[in-house]
Amino acid sequence: MGPLRANTFLCSIEEKLEQDNKLPEFYRRYVEDTLATMKDVPAAEAFLSMLNNCHPSISFTWELASDNKLPFVGMEVLKKGRKLETSVYKKPTNTCTGLLLHQQSHADKRYKKSLIKTMVNLAFHLLSTREAFTRECDHLESPINSIISHFVTFVVPGDPYVPAQTTRQFKDQKSADAVEKQLSDLSKIGEDLRM
Question: Is the pTM of this model over 0.90?
Fold first, then answer.
């Protein structure tokens, strides 16, 4: 309910500013995040002051572009010459690997797949160039590749490209392999069961 009320409140302020011809030439808002272009910093300061004087209970803040980059609603707007490009914004405080849900967590597999699909879909719709989309897909693939690399390094003995030869041969090898797989699934409980 909060975002709906905020939107209604801000719409009433914007309508009055538009009637008084006080909105900048480029002004876009999503809920409470606004993107506007100004001719210079003093003009931006004057507009911010005017917004903050519209109602005593609101207080707008601002963020100026730095190195021709400006974060806005999950994306980063980059100025390249006279063109604008977008990329996915990652907060500087995000020092982790970007891992949102551990692959071995007890979440249902469909949630894990949906998370990846959501992130790819978000990147597809936010990014303005194919190169940026490719970079983001590579970034999303990075944790998956590190999991595979860890598995190959620490679990698979010897050369990862040469299948390990099994020395065990049972009369019904397929059944033995099925039982081994079921036992290894049990190891997720914390026991390491091997044949």
Answer: no
